[in-house]
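Example record

The entry below shows one chain as it appears in the dataset: sequence first, then structure tokens.
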Amino acid sequence: MWTADKWKSYEVIDCSDGEKLERWGKYLLVRPDPQVIWQTERKNPGWQKKNGHYHRSAKGGGEWEFFDLPKQWNIDYELGGKVLTFNLKPFSFKHTGLFPEQAVNWEWFTKIIADAVKAGRTVKVLNLFAYTGGATLAAASAGAQVTHVDASRGMEVWAKENAASSGLSGAPVRWLVDDCRKFVEREGRRGNFYDAIIMDPPSYGRGPRGEIWKIEDEICPLLKDCAKILSKDALFFLINSYTTGLQASVLSYLLGSVIVPEFGGKVAADEVGLPVTGSGLILPCGASGRWSR
């Protein structure tokens, strides 16, 4: 498992009976996690001293309960000698605006980018389903030119705020609100190419004009279209998945069948996870597939 174990301002303290206790900076949150099916004793006092608790509803969805939690705060992550700052706030369906486990992927691809930039290469990165910009900022901090695409205007605004907080407002990032599938198709027609592509697709979603996205139906056609806009000497391709059916091996097969025949290189895939301080366990948080030259 690839483990995001370099965080200083975030940790999973404990997890039991469908929930996890996390520290986000100086604030403690309790949030649901479907992977946590074990039932262990909740000895850590943080369970009782939480600042926020997201309660799942039996009918679907849920709601936040707050105990002295600000509307917004931030945490930092040191990456390649630089500090990325992320603005957090509790919003719909338990989220805070950041997936900390992705830091293990940031560590992987920023080294590839930095090495290429150091060798004098201009690196163009396309970040699809880019959310609040964690991967965008990581790539930009390593010296890449980034095209950030997400269907939500609100997420784009949030990502720009994170860029400003991280001192990257002047970085070469193109911020776009668009349907990712249609954008990739248009880039193919325009003859635009990228040296690396990152995608973090949702299991289900809608585009800005009501376009429906179901990952099982759309991921392979999208991957094939993405292969058409990879540069001949492309550096890497990263796919993240939180969908149970798209396990690491599935991501490996996808990249191996679409990217490798055209570009060579190698594929690796595994679960990604976060260390649990209280138990020493690693909490699984989805899977990632990586292709690199």
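Notes for this example: The longest strand covers residues 282-292. The first helix runs from residue 103 to 118.
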